[in-house]
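Let us work through a complete example step by step.
Step 1: write down the sequence.
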Amino acid sequence: MFRGSMVALITPMKANGDVDEAALEALVAFHLENGTDAIVAVGTTGESATLNYKEHRHVMKRVIDLVAGKIPVIAGTGSNSTAEAIEMTEIAMQDGADACLLVTPYYNKPTQEGLYQHYKLIAERVAIPQILYNVPGRTSCDMLPETVERLAAIPNIVGIKEATGNLERAADILQRCGDRMDLYSGDDATAMELILMGGKGDISVTANVAPKAMHEMCAAALAGDRETASRINATLAALHTDLFLEPNPMPVKWALAKMGFGDERGIRLPLVPCSEAIKPQVLAAMRQAGIEC
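Step 2: predict the structure and record it as tokens.
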């Protein structure tokens, strides 16, 4: 249903932590101008964990309005409370999102049956297309391929963002689910290979700062053009790793501030602005990717 480079958009903030409305508008325009194929609003990179309910809805709706139907908007609506996830997914559908991205419930440590019932109920209650999101490094909750296969039978569960970076896991999901569910990378470093294997795109942190190159890399990989995809990906390889030298979105927010999008101090506690120690390495990665800053 969705294809290509899908940016996991930051939520730009001022130094005092307020949402930076002007920077958000400029960022959306930047992505529309540079070929981003879809925008994921208020996911992990968008600091969903520290936006309050009102802010969460506002940022989702603002991105939807700014995009104005030009590309899909996928709203991050996951929660470790099933009832809360249902409520936020309903709101996203009312506000015009094209789909929702739902992270596995964090902290609770549900069983595989609990995960199945969680996602099944959300899908039954809200008719919007839904994308599962497996990122055990963040959540301490790993949704196994056999559970994904069960969920692929539910019509409005249309995809999964698999962020383990494990290509054997990706191949297993592809084999199990076939054309019943789309597979997306959630790991920039292995995204090209996952797409060449049969994945449909990348929900990307790197795309925040290099949207045109990420779009072109994903497009080449989707076309089966390994040579072109590899050439582009080589210029992005350092970004794929160095934007994670400290917890996301600390480095990418600093990088975007260097590009003129928001204030580098604009991040919510308990995250803090990235350390001076990593800035030269992130800057070198940006320059390797041809980013002017």
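Step 3: interpret the result. The chain has a mean pLDDT of 97.
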